[in-house]
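chain below, 178 aa
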Amino acid sequence: MASARSTKKFLFETLEILIFAFILSWGLRSTVVAAVNVPSGSMLPTIQLQDRLVVDKLSFKLTEINRGDVIVFRPLTSVDSSGDFWIKRVIGLPGDKVEIKDGEVFINDHALTESYEMEKPNYTYGPLMIPKDSYFVLGDNRNNSLDSHYWGVLPAENVVGRALFRYWPLDHFGLLAK
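prediction:
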């Protein structure tokens, strides 16, 4: 009889642990962190195809998004209604003037120094003043990225979080370069 009670107690405690773990996991994933898989080459060479990243969903709500941050966001529904997250680098902030010409990106009439870009852009864009609560985002693989030079500014409300570090593949584990 004691054996049956201890078995029931064990099963009940195991069920409690599993429910708690599920609730904790769901709570963390919905508010603090997310894991994303990168399906495209738009962020080459910084992020490779099929890299897996951890996204910080909390700190950008407490601190400002900065130029150079790699962010994860929900794309405009007019561009992609799949529900998948996209990832790009923040180039222009609210109030900035952005222009792309002669293979350079200009912010407020000053050329950016961008060690992370794969190649110089072979297109022109702007000038454009970025409205309040919006960002101008570009892929590091400038000529092969569906980004703000194609569809315009990204509303701040679409930002999910900052890409923090790569956890897969293991030989590339670490923080993302800014």
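The helical segments are 2-31, 59-62, 148-151. The longest helix spans residues 2-31.
thats it, cya
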